[in-house]
Amino acid sequence: MGSGSSRAPNSPTPHPPSGPGAADGAAAAPGAAVATHCPYCALQCGTRLHPGAGPEEPLRVEPDAGFPVNRGGLCQKGWTAPAVLRAPDRLRTPLVRGRDGLLAPAGWDTALDAVAARLAEIRAAHGPDAVAVFGGGGLTNEKAYLLGKFARVALGTRMIDYNGRFCMSSAAAAGIAAFGLDRGLPFPVTDLGEADTVLLAGANPAETMPPLMRHLNKAGALVVVDPRRTATAERAALHLAPAPGTDLALALGLLHIAVTEGLVDEEYVRARTAGFDAAWRHAAGWWPERVELVTGVPADAQREAVRLLSGARRAYVLTGRGAEQHSKGTDTVAAFVNVALALGLPGRPGSGYGCLTGQGNGQGGREHGQKADQLPGYRHLTDPAARAHVAEVWGVAPESLPGPGLSAAELLDALGTAGGPRALLVFGSNPVVSAPDAARVQRRLAELDLLVVADFVPSETATMADVVLPVTQWAEEEGTLTNLEGRVLRRHRALSPPEGVRDDLAVLRELAVRLGEPPDRFPADPRRVFDELRRASRGGPADYSGISYARLDAGEALHWPCPEAPDGAAPHPGTPRLFLDRFAHEDGRARFQDVDHREPADARDDRFPLWATTGRQLQHYQSGAQTRRVPELVRAAPEATVELHPDTAARAGLAEGELARVRSARGAVLARVRLVATLRTDTVFLPFHFPGHGRANLLTGTALDPRSRMPEFKVSAVRVEPVEVLETAVPEPAVRSAAG
Ligand code: SF4
């Protein structure tokens, strides 16, 4: 953990106050700019939102030059984020599906009464686990916290998980196993600019979080591991392009080279780690030429990567979704962590290992209880002491708290099946587009007795719901988020929400009260919820107890853990840099992990001879429910595309701009061909932001990582063919019955 004795390297980064434009609960004075953060990715760029003097005035956002993470930079998504606030199809009233099968406007009381009544009926008939909850990595800490409490106390269900399971869970599992604690970056982003070498495995920040490149561009050599020659790889000193699904073999090979070339930091390994011998037993079999055969990465390039890392005074190994989203994602990340440990990087000032968390509150979202196996403060649900602590804060008996439930993909796959959940409440997620094997998920949702979706636009999942509840967006609400470096940030209300729209916290409270909970147990004021979260997290791995809205509003840079100081003592300064003296395992040592390569769940054959890999593109974010409503972004990236090497396209009889059908064993996608001469000839790439027949997740499968339960988004066996006859790839969802 972080060291109180290492104040100099661990001192917080100063930055200007990001105070509110108005008191909590009230919008800013007309026209006054409000300091806040971009609503999209985990970089959480600092912004100032100019709300305009009236509802017809244009909204304008500008970067906050004083915020160290983005230093005045924003990407296209950040610049255009205000457009979603006034999306023409913004939800402004609850919708309830009638007996005619159509969604129709309803009053809040009607909608909430209907939901609560159906939930009570379903629980009475089938038990508490018949009701499931699905959250999101974009929800504020307060919402994630209250959602977990709502599921476990008001519903009493084990069945809660969230879409962050699809993003960061493999790095989280690997980080906990290696270091005893999972914080995406255990150091501030700004440290990266001081590095001599950064190895980036499976991330493309030049497109997904461009302001991060301000730091990486200042670093020395950038080594990029990615099957595609991405915009980030273009800027790298060295690009290693392994075949999809072989990153683990490559990482084992890098460890092999470090050992056989005498580059291991033996003093560090002896003093600060355990388990090297077991890890080496597998890596010993991965000599460079064998790795080249499996991955396609030349042996000399492997050696060069290790020399660049080991020869650096300051070096970092970073992983992203490319390493994580596999049925062996945890082991793949662990293998890269092994390389970092062998070279003595983690916990050394100016060096380290980190994961580039993706979603806006991907870090905080996995800390406060919406994950199937966790309680607030990153506590484990099966730990009796954790259960007792949280139960006391919640005013319930520890034994009343249900145990762990199903992970996201398993939960979605159980919906509507015999013994599975009969009702689902979705907050801040759009699984019809973002979940693996999306057609199957769509069929499962159609089998439910009750689907309730809280959202601010009619997402693809919302349009299937029995009840749609219109909720606030980022600029209309107060709260906190935790960015990829574990820094807790304030979100400030700049605008009043449209009439008829409610905050998610208020929705949860209203439902809880209707389900018989005392009103005091479910506060709807974000400050009160945060204060309760602080108490629930006290003493846990992610301890927020010393963080307050007042400290954040005063401009303090607070990274967790930040425990509450004893009476009379100075407030804890937070922990920007973890592990400087010891890791979080009881003995203070990091653990090498004993991992070996294995094949993806899919196998290529004559029917499906190519690998499809999925990812993000510059203009869009996640399922695209927000960014597909921004005209400027849609003009630049209007539809689903498939990138192919020109030779691959020629073999399939396809040319630039034509419509292609990409087919896997699960389904088929229609996408516009883009020829990319730098792509591997065995690989095609599809962004996953698009709906309908353009959904890349119609191709992906539900093979899961055994430890993190991460689906295998990055490797699917496919074929590509011209579209001669349009066919319906996915049946339309069944018409749903009335909720009441
Ligand atoms: Fe927003 Fe991320 Fe772009 Fe920054 S990099 S502006 S946080 S989407």
How many β-strand runs?
A: 28
Q: What molecules are bound to this protein? A: iron/sulfur cluster
How helical, in percent, are the residues?
25-40%
Strand sequence of the main sheet, in spatial order?
5-4-18-17-16-6-7
Categorize the overall geometry.
globular
Counted by DSSP, the helix tally is 26
Q: Give the CA-CA distance, first to last residue.
A: 52 Å
Strand content: 15-25%
Task: Kindly provide the name of the CATH class of the largest domain.
Answer: Alpha Beta
Structural class: alpha/beta
Number of domains: 4
> How much is the average pLDDT?
93
> Could you please say which CATH topology of the largest domain applies here?
Rossmann fold
- Low-confidence runs: 1-23, 728-740
- Radius of gyration, in Å, reads 24 Å
Molecular structure report:
- There is one protein chain.
- It contains 26 helices and 28 strands.
- It is of the alpha/beta class.
- The model is unreliable at 1-23 and 728-740 (pLDDT under 50).
- 60% of the residues are buried.
- It is globular, with a radius of gyration of 24 Å.
- It folds into four domains: 5-86, N-terminal domain of TfIIb (Single Sheet), CATH 2.20.25; 95-166 and 361-471 and 503-541, Rossmann fold (3-Layer(aba) Sandwich), CATH 3.40.50; 169-356, Dimethylsulfoxide Reductase, domain 2 (3-Layer(aba) Sandwich); 610-722, Barwin-like endoglucanases.
- The strands form seven sheets. It has a seven-stranded mixed sheet with strand order 5-4-18-17-16-6-7, with helices on one face. A six-stranded mixed sheet has the order 24-26-25-28-23-27. The protein has a five-stranded parallel sheet with strand order 10-9-8-12-13.
